Amino acid sequence: MELLANLAAGFAALLGTETIPWWQPMTVITIGITIGIFVGVMPGLSASTGLALMVPFTFGMEPLIAIVFLVAIYTSCAYGGTITAIAINTPGTPAAVAVAMDGYSLTKQGQPGRALGASLIANVMGGLTGALILILFSFPLAKIALKFGPPAFFSLAVFGLTIVAAMESKNRTKAFFSTALGLLLMTVGLDIINAHPRFTFGQTELFDGFSFIPALIGLFALGEILLNIEKTGAIQTSVKTFSSKLPRFGEMWKIRKNIFKGGAIGALVGAVPGAGATIAAFVAYGEAKRSSKEPEKFGTGSLEGIAAPSAAAGASEGGALVPLLTLGIPGSAATAVMIGALTLHNITPGPELFKNNPVLVYALFASLFVGIAFMLLVGFLGTKLWVKLIEAPRAVLFPVIMTIAFVGSFAVKNSMFDVYVCLGFGVLGWLLRRNGFPTAPLVLAMILGKMAETNFRQALLSEGTWTVFFTNPLSLGLLILAVFSLLWPILKERRKRSSTENQGQNA
Amino acid sequence: MSVVGMGAEYPDKTIKIVVHTKPGGAIDIMARQVAQIAMSYTDESVVVVNKSGGSGLIAMANTYYSKPDGYTVLAFPAAFLAPIQTTDIGFGLENFQYLACMTVSPEAIITSKNSDLATFEDILSAAKAEPGKQKWCGPGSGSLDHLMAVKIWDKAGMEAKWIPYGGGGPAITAVMGNHSDVYVGNPEDILGREENLRIAAVANPTRLDSFPFAPTFTEFGIDLTDDVMWRGFAVKKGTDPKAVSYLVDLLHKVSKDERWGKFVRTMRLQSVFLEDEEFTQVVNRDAESSKTYLRKAGFKIGSVPESAPLPGILFAGAVMFLLLPGSFVLRRKGKKLSQVAVISLIGIALAIVFFFESTYFPPPREGTVVGAATVPQVWALLLTILGLLVFRSVSVGKDAEPNREGHSVRSVIRITLLAALYTILIPLAGFFTATMIMLVGGMLVMGYRQYAKLILIAAAVLVFMYIVFLKTLVVPLPEGVLL
């Protein structure tokens, strides 16, 4: 009951207080959502960069307005990232890679509206799940999150990598080849444990390795463009018009379980500091495919394959607020910026905040719900616009996307070197994809490679023994999950094959 | 007319503050405050430019290679000392002119309230009971905090191990979750986490006003009183003295400003103002100490890391890149050279180069079996095995060549070359000129022939970028000589 009263006070604060005029909170939420979606859409601008760029604008605001504004940007980025993933196979955020696989397939079939709508609804429902979990279970969740030490993080990374097996069923060897390539490329840069420069060949720019975002933009945005240019003739005759028709209610109702499972996975993984939306999205995709009745449709435009990772990405944001609010620790790059911004307003996120300034905390919670509603509105209004945009002639669209890709790559670290990285990975992505090597596993490996190695070596340094990966219960559980997720798809196919053979013999 | 001034008074254009973290880092927040306040004391604008990466080396190099005209100011934290000392990068601390130190914060050690380590005494006795087992953690290897840990162990005559977490946030999380015992950082790191964390000792002569409950090292009989994490500003050595004194004066005005005082109090730092001479002395003193403890921690000073002979690598690289065009050309002559096979071979070649290079990495530290080379070698083996599997599936005919009728590799090459030209043109001709060329050229290459529309679209995109990126979001765009 106290919770409800607090929430009511939070909502009331959004309608204005003595010091805040009534129109202000809603206005900044709308502006924040629009900025967030835009930042998410732009490859290279992530939630953390977007937030950092907007922090100076909050200097003159009331603390409550500032927090609501930043949270609005933060929550809408994920949906923005999926828009370009679906429309032009250019994930605006790393998590959207998992959405691109099926989302872009639907676009190629001329139904971007269906994909965008499904992603938006799933993202919003995921966001709701995440917000509810945040409000109801943040303190117990934070306790579990703190149990994640180096051994458990290593096993989580391994588990994440095994999802490749479920993701790709046609070219499994090639998918694993891409994975290994990504893992090896990610070892370039300063070794985090010894600070030894590895494979940098004296280049200072390589000290941090290949910047991930420019590589992602190259692999997807440029790779896709080059692939399309190669088969220009074929593409332009296949689909001329794109439909902005949204998915039917029945279609979405049928996959409701998927959405809520994705949301729960997103909130849980998001709450673990350092795990993040990307792992959540891939885990949700893998799980959706495993439990699906039509796993063969995944990768060809399955609504389930769009909804599950979208919901996970949406929910992981609420999840990442758990360690921020309950422990005062940032779970992601974006929440780290948020802590900095709040400190400037003399608000220190942490458990004390619930006691000292409950109105602020519950206004934040309330703004999550309001933000979700606004996002739904802005999202639906935007769908038509996005569909219009991809109907532009490719000869115009592609050069424009290419320049934006380069600007995005530059903006990450303000470095021309990253622009070269983007171009290099673009050619690599084209070469790999024209030969049937999927690039999503490469991206996943680039995200998880460093996490796996760092935590592996931290665990060995801390404990001095190999057995720790099996004696730590969290780590053991994740490793068992990893074995399961690696073997399940392969065994399932075997069984299916032998059963069809049996049927053939009986008949 | 003088060579430096060209007749104009300094400053007559925007002053850039180069910061070595991404937006949102602690020093970035400080620099943005300084920039904002400074603008009330100068007619020119002051902007923050983030050049992150390479432990600050990239930001330092950026300043070092810019003109010594006083328009590029480097936000210079104590954390810069170790990276520049351990890397042979062609310039050193002596190549910078130190303007002023603005904030300091003493080093401190922090433990979890769930552990038995309440004060430094507990830490010491626990460490002595099991020498070398206690886990100390912080951002990186060879970081300021790492060297502080080595210094504490040295002064207290104890042994422990250092676990780097790659950042302050993850390290402090590890202590809160009891995955590590002691975190080395600064007192303000416990803010908002007071329920879970405590300061075991702080390297200050007396107890801090802002953290009166935190004991000092001297209270435990350890002589550590002036180990501080300072943050200041520097320019390239050889900058016009007039510009230097202008900047020092500007920073002085900022440090006296009421808004600056409020900011420093909010962040619970200590405001100081050490001008060039004094600041330089601090830098030199800490640089000496940094060298001593880097050596103690097993780092080599100013050394070039050994690496595999370059000719071998170049040869391997050349072979890999010649195979690739080969796979396009040879097929056209009717011979079937599968590109999938070529890619798998390139993967294997890459794995071999990486494996070979990794044998030059330093061996694992004492007490551990896994070193810098281990994991890359595992991945290299994995890639080799998978490369062989892919190659086999091609050679047994399992992997059919996709139908590529009507495909045009030539237009791909054309647009890639145009993009490459674009990246070269940006620093030469400037962003907007180069982008105009890229947009117009790209549309032409792709066969767009409505010339009036084409120019209109390109211009509209440029205006959009100008308004949205440069003016609204203030996203930095690449700079060139022209526009």
What does this structure look like?
The complex is a heterodimer of chains A (507) and B (483). Chain A has 507 residues and is mostly helical. Chain A has one domain (2-242, 267-492). Helix content of chain A is 76%, strand content 1%. Chain A has helices at residues 2-14, 23-41, 47-54, 63-88, 97-108, 112-146, 150-167, 172-185, 212-230, 232-238, 249-254, 256-271, 276-291, 303-327, 333-344, 351-356, 358-390, 394-413, 416-434, 440-463, 468-471, 473-506; strands at residues 189-190, 197-198. In chain A, strands 1-2 form a two-stranded antiparallel sheet. The longest helix of chain A is centred in the N-terminal third of the chain and has 35 residues, at 112-146. Chain B is of the alpha/beta class. Chain B has 4 domains: 15-104 and 229-296, 3-Layer(aba) Sandwich (D-Maltodextrin-Binding Protein, domain 2), CATH 3.40.190; 108-220, D-Maltodextrin-Binding Protein, domain 2 (3-Layer(aba) Sandwich); 310-395; 409-472. Chain B is 47% helix and 13% strand. Chain B contains 15 helices and 11 strands. Chain B has a 6-stranded mixed beta sheet, sandwiched between helices. A 5-stranded mixed beta sheet of chain B has the order 7-6-8-5-9. In chain B, helix 10 runs antiparallel to helix 11 (339-358) and helix 14 (431-445) packs antiparallel against helix 15. The two termini of chain B are 27 Å apart. The relative contact order of chain B is 0.09. The model of chain B is unreliable at 1-7 (pLDDT under 50). At the A-B interface, helix 3, helix 8, strand 2, helix 9 and helix 10 of A face helix 1, helix 2, strand 7, helix 6 and helix 10 of B.
